[in-house]
Amino acid sequence: MDVLLTNPATDEVSRSFDEFWNNIRSKPANKLIRKSSVDHELVVKSRSFRHGFQIPNGKEYVKAVSQRLHLMQDRAGDIPFFWTESEVKFDSPTKVKKPRDRYDLMWSTNMQPVIDKLQKRLVIVTPYFVPGDAGVEFFRRLRAKDIEITIVTNSLESTDVPIVHSGYAPYRKELLDIGVVLYEVDGREKQKLEKDSLRSWFASRSSLHAKLFVFDDQTAFIGSPNFDPRSFYENTEIGVSLHSSELAQVLDSALTDLVSQDAFRVMKEDNSLVWIKGDEVFHREPGASWFKRASNYLMRFLPVESQL
């Protein structure tokens, strides 16, 4: 999910850039990277690579790439744009050295006016979702105002960071009890990954990565933050609020198609969780092996939620 901005929003992005890279914690790369002599083997291989562009197959490849780029350029004019007011939100680079209660340094504080105006519906798309007690209470207050809440996140099988899922899983039943609608992306692999490393045993080709909030079909926020403690307190994030009902409705429609085709609806049945997608019903994490389920359950006992 990408956003293309122009002035005055780009001036704010530039200001954020300047704040970060003029900060005392920023260091020139040549101060951090140890200089080394040129690797002879690398030079030999790079010559071989350049030579590949001179052989017939190499020329055909370069030609095909060039044609593809021209085709993309020709089609750029067909992309629909939504011209609207936008506001760039970003964390201060000093946030990481300050106490966690310095909310004035956080992007999330700047979203409060939009949250205060919520009347009907909030949609959150976040790959890493760890609400914590504070997040559950936030959703509870919104539900008390009869505001619909829909959350789309990764399933255990689709996430690329299983320990984050262990921080999210214990809150599912409580969220469902207060009326939050939960969807988890179907991570069952259509094309099997090569299990050639430890990390690949926990990885999925179908992982959700976009971060998106939609408020009342009126405003969209697209950026880098997830809904988790790390985004709120540890990382420095940036995003943009787009005040366009047309864009918000297009995104909402696209999300409706996404969850109907590529996600499980998580629900409660006799105090147990069930995952439903079309005619499929699962009574345990869909697609996840017993080893992944067991190891993820054990991760819940690690005292690391505040860092997830």
UniProtKB/TrEMBL annotation:
A Pfam match: PLDc_2
Listed InterPro entries: PLD-like_dom, PLipase_D/transphosphatidylase
SUPFAM superfamilies: Phospholipase D/nuclease
Transmembrane segments: none
Tree of life domain: Bacteria
PLD phosphodiesterase domain: residues covered: 204-231
The protein's name in its UniProt record: Cardiolipin synthetase
Lineage: Bacteria, Pseudomonadati, Pseudomonadota, Gammaproteobacteria, Vibrionales
